[in-house]
Amino acid sequence: MDENKFSFEKLVVYIEARKLVKEVYNLTKKLPVEEKFELSSQIRRAAVSVTANIAEGCGRYSLKEKIHFIGISFGSLMEVFSELQTALDLGYITETSLERLRPQFIQISRMLSGLKNSYSNMLPQHKP
Predict the structure, then answer these.
(1) How far is CA 18 from CA 35, 54, 91, 100, 125, in A?
(2) What does the domain layout of the chain look like in residue ranges?
C-alpha cells in the first residue's frame, strides 16, 4: 500500500500537520462572520501552507530546496499560532481552545526542525 503513496504522505510531520489543519478549520468556524474573508481566511491559508510546503519540499531534488521549503512550512506554522493568538486577543476564541492546540504546534515545530536538521546533515560539508 505504501508504494502507492508519495514520500511526503509517509512523513509523521505531514500526517500531524494535516490533523492540525482540520483542527484549525474547526476552530475558525467559530469566528464572527465578518472575519470570514479576513482573519479566518488568513489563518486557514497559513495552516494549509504548512502541509503544502512539506509536500513541495519533498518534491524537490536539491537538499537546499528541501530545507528552504521546510523553513517556509515552519514559518507558516508560527504564523498560524500568532494569528490564533490575535483571535484570542479579539475575544473570538477562548484561551482553553488555543492552549488545547499548543501541544500540536510544539510537536510539529520540533518535527519540522528535526527534518530540516536531517536534510542539513546530508549536505556535503565544506572544509576550510
Answers:
(1) 23, 11, 26, 16, 34
(2) 21-119
Closest CA to 71 of 104, 112, 111, 102: 112
The ranges of the chain with pLDDT < 70 are 1, 126-128
Query: What is the radius of gyration, based on Cα positions, of the chain?
Result: 16
| pLDDT for the residue 83 | 97
The answer to pTM > 0.85 is yes
What is the C-alpha to C-alpha distance for residues 102 and 23, in angstroms, rounded to an integer?
12
Which three cell numbers mark 116?
Answer: 530540516
Q: Are 80 and 88 in contact (CB under 8 A)?
A: no
Task: Evaluate whether 108 touches 50 at the Cβ level (below 8 Å).
Answer: yes
Is the domain covering 21-119 a CATH 3.40.50.2300 domain? Answer: no
Rounded CA gap, 53 and 37, in Å?
23
